[in-house]
Design goal:
CATH class of the largest domain: Alpha Beta
Strand content: 15-25%
CATH topology of the largest domain: 2-enoyl-CoA Hydratase, Chain A, domain 1
Shape: globular
Largest sheet: 6 strands, mixed
Number of helices: 10
Helix content: 40-55%
Number of strands: 9
CATH architecture of the largest domain: Alpha-Beta Complex
Radius of gyration: 19 Å
Order of helices and strands: EEHEHEEHEEHHEHEHHHH
């Protein structure tokens, strides 16, 4: 009897214009192996070209953890390119669609890097965030030194990085590391509801907002104003339809 194929390392489910990606190594707390990176990269490349059918993306982990970080057993294994993992994190950040990370349990180092590449984060009460580079005599290569200070400020970022201490969900919310905190049993529903509320708005506007905010941070304030005026695409193709729906509701 032929052996059944192993389950995909990154699952995908689409519903109502929202694509949910699930890191699927629950037995290893979704530790980031090269095969998992390859599977994630394939999913991200597909989503980048699906702007007409996907308006928002949710990234989550199967089981009791979001992601325990890089698979230490895979350290030193040759990757397809020198910065393969970091480039994959960049692909997540560069998706045209807004990305919501749904985090429960461990969100360590490489998992923290993935979460920071998302636009928003809903954390469960059980979520714990940590940068463990210092525990293993490693240094950031996937963008942590840039994304973490931009998220929570240089002072708080340096403390997390220098001490490798665990930051629980309530503190992560105070730091601005996450968008909101919910009970563990409510995480999937809360992330799905947030993604659905995002996807209910104009996808044209969502894509423009994401580009303007993310790329605008590369400029000074004055340059950023000029960048917005130069790059903002203006009204989208669904403006007329949305106005008509508004008028119809007003008449009823």
């Amino acid at each position: 009897m032929a052996e059944s194929a192993p389950p995909p390392l990154v699952l995908r489910e689409d519903r109502g214009g929202v694509a949910t990606l699930t890191l699927n190594r629950p037995e290893a707390l979704n530790a980031l192996s090269l095969p998992l990176f390859a599977a994630l990269r394939e999913r991200l490349a597909a989503l980048a070209g699906e702007t007409e059918t996907v308006g928002c993306v949710v990234l989550r982990g199967a089981g009791r953890a979001f992601c325990a970080g890089n698979d230490l057993k895979a350290l030193g294994e040759p990757a397809p390119s020198p910065h393969y993992q970091g480039e994959t994190v960049d692909m997540l950040e560069a998706l045209p669609q807004p990305v919501v990370a749904a985090v429960r349990g461990a969100c360590y180092t490489g998992g923290l890097e993935l979460m920071l590449a998302a636009d928003l984060c809903v954390a469960a009460d059980s979520a714990v965030f940590c940068d463990t580079h210092g525990e293993w005599s490693l240094t950031p290569l996937w963008g942590l030194s840039q994304r973490l200070p931009r998220r929570i400020g240089p002072l708080a970022a340096k403390e997390m990085m220098y001490t490798a201490r665990r930051v629980r969900a309530d503190e992560a919310l105070r730091l601005g590391l996450v968008s909101r905190v919910v009970a563990d049993g409510e995480l999937e529903d809360a992330a799905a509801a947030l993604a659905a509320s995002i996807a209910a708005n104009s996808w044209h506007t969502l894509r423009a907002d994401k580009r303007l905010v993310n790329e605008g941070q590369n400029h000074t304030y004055a340059e950023g104003l000029a960048f917005e005026r130069r790059v903002s695409p203006g009204a989208g193709p669904d403006l007329a339809e949305r106005l008509e729906r508004f008028r119809a509701r007003s008449r009823s």
